[in-house]
Amino acid sequence: MDAGFTQADGVFQQPTIAIPTVTGTPRGVTATVNINREDPINVRNGPSVLFDLIGTIQPGQQVPVIGRSVGGDWILIEYFGGPENQGWIYAPFVTLSPGEIPIIEPPPTPTPELTQTVNPTLAAQFINTPVPTRLATFTPVEPLVVPTYEDVTSVSLLGRIPMGLVILVIGGLGALLGLFSFFSNR
What we know:
The protein is of the alpha+beta class. It has a domain at 30-96: SH3 Domains (SH3 type barrels, Roll), CATH 2.30.30. Helices cover 15% and strands 18% of the residues. The chain has helices spanning 120-124, 163-184, and strands at residues 30-33, 41-44, 53-57, 62-68, 74-78, 86-90, 94-96. A five-stranded antiparallel sheet has the order 6-5-4-1-7, with no helix packed on it. Strands 2-3 form a two-stranded antiparallel sheet. The longest helix is centred in the C-terminal third of the chain and has 22 residues, at 163-184. The model has no long low-confidence stretch (mean pLDDT 79).
């Protein structure tokens, strides 16, 4: 401190020249990672999980927004360390500040480094050729034969003579022979 000024006097030295003040430039729209998330969100080099992972952003962290995908599901942000210092984050994980966000044309979807092929011998195991079977055929039912019986009460041994009469005649003859035999032995 100077000898002429003391803090007890309450007088402080005033600058005599213009001092530049630090003011922030408007950053535009910012994205803040939701604080209720436990895990950081992934930053990718394109708007899909098919693109490579280039980093992460912690919950509560704020980043400047450059643009958004056509559907609005992915947000393009400033991310130092990514290609062209940019990266893509999934929009439902962040809260955006008010403002207009331009639509950015996404980079082409990357082609996989390794193309999966199917082993033809393995695929042949799953080819199932069905064995033809004979279909059921229609066999007509044999005609129903209803047996018919003749009425034995009306049929006789000698044509049209009733059976009861034949029995009575034979019984009568037997009685006569029995009487004749009884009287002839006496």
